[in-house]
Amino acid sequence: MYVISKAKFFHTACDGIVAELSWKHLSDESSLYERLTPKSQVIVFLHVDDDVKKVHQRCAELLNFAPLLKIAVFRNAPTHLEGCSLLKVGIKSYAHALSHHDVLKQIHQTISQKNVWVYPELMQFMIAEVSTKHEHHQAPLARLSNKEKEIALMVTDGMSNAKIASVLSLAEITVKKHLSSIYEKLAVKDRLALALLLKH
C-alpha cells in the first residue's frame, strides 16, 4: 500500500485508517516506479494537485506500466468530469483529499475487493449521464415488485435515497431495504450497475 502525497494532512488521515496496515509514504511516482514490477497488484492512494491532463497522463502511465495497480485519486477540489475521465483510464476510486478517515477506510476496503468507489454526487452524475438509447429494459423489471420497480427507475434517474424517500413518503431506511432486495434480485452490486442494467 502506497500513499503518494507531499501534504502532511493527507498522510495523517491515511495513518488513521487501520493501524495494522503497512503504509509506505512516497513523495512522487518516481519513488513508486522503483518499487513496482509490471505484475504489481498494490493499492496506491495518489493525492494530486496538477491540471487534469497531467493527472490523466500520470495515471495512464502508471497503469500502462503495472496494469493490476489499484489507484485511488484524491483531489482538494474534485470535479465530476475529471472523475469520469480518470475512471475511464482505469483508476478504482476518485475522492476529496479531505475525506474523513472512515471514508478512506471504506475506499481501501472497496478497491481491495476489486470494486470501484466514488463519492455519492459523482455516482449520481454518472447514473444521470448513462446513455438511454432504448426504453427502460423491461425483462429485469419483471422480477421486481411494483414498489421496487418504482425505486429502481428513480435510481436510474439519478435520485438519491433521501430524495426517493421524500417523493414516496417512505423512511430512508425503507428505501435502503428495497434497494438491497433490488440488487439481490437483479444480481447487481450498486446504483451504477443497476443504472447500466436498466439503461442500455
Commentary on this structure:
- It is built from eleven helices and six strands.
- The protein is an alpha/beta fold and 200 residues long.
- The chain has two domains: 2-117, 3-Layer(aba) Sandwich (Rossmann fold), CATH 3.40.50; 127-198, Winged helix-like DNA-binding domain superfamily/Winged helix DNA-binding domain (Arc Repressor Mutant, subunit A, Orthogonal Bundle).
- The protein has a six-stranded parallel sheet, with helices on both faces.
- Helix 3 (52-65) links the parallel strand 3 and strand 4 (70-75).
- Helix 3 runs parallel beside helix 4 and helix 8 (146-156) packs across helix 10 (172-186).
- The longest helix has 15 residues, at 172-186.
- It is elongated, with a radius of gyration of 19 Å.
- Mean pLDDT is 85; it is low at 132-136.
